[in-house]
Design brief:
Largest sheet: 9 strands, mixed
Structural class: alpha/beta
Strand content: 15-25%
Order of helices and strands: EEEEHHEHHEHEHHEHEH
Number of strands: 9
Distance between the termini: 40 Å
Number of helices: 9
Shape: globular
Amino acid sequence: PVVFEDFEVRSLDFGTDSVMDVYARPSLSQAPVAGVLHGGSTDGLKQLKPFASDLARRNTVVFVPEWPAITHVRSFSEDPEPSLVEQTVAVICALRKARAVASQFGGDGDHLTLIATSQAGAVAVRVALATTEEWPEAECRPSVDHTPQLVIGLAGNYSGGRYRVLVSPIDLWSRFDPFRFVDDHREVRAVFLHGLDDTNVMPQESEKADRTLRSAGYNSLYVQIEAEHATLIRPWTSSGSFTAAMVDKLLNGELRML
């Protein structure tokens, strides 16, 4: 492990050529557990290091997996189905691994939160709302439930945005559309946080996701703040500090969702 002053970072395998970093303070017991998905970055583990470190210092066990985000639109458009299946299976397997080993780091695997940034929004909602039977390709730890109790989106792209229009035939997208699963797991709660100054992903993405889930009977919350796209995961900024504090309260049940 890499030991910092008040927490440690370990690397775990969770699939073929797949790794995730685990951030945890020593001597925790029944601590909140969060899986955090990076956006469309080729260096996602590094991108989330400040945010994950901040949550770890607040006594959360944090799992940050590598997952196959779509970084090259051209290669995705040539054959999109394998890419969409691969990313979905990777996230499912990461969550199952996190839940299975959480107690080794002092975490409570029965209370798992999935946090997604930017491009990861679509796969996070897709995975959080879908039953295991929807993804038979995920053969890892089939006895472990992957579905989180809470999904938190940070400036997320939930509709698939520019990637959806590249899927041909368009019927293929129907399997991967996150919102086709809205009737599967109504016990999953959702929070969508978005910066009003975001020019990368429009705030309407989070607003529509919240509206869709609430209209289907889910406990969902949409929060707007003055922030740009990337600052939500930069805890040294005012908007990033607000985000980390809000996430911490949600993980500890200190922020009530009406």
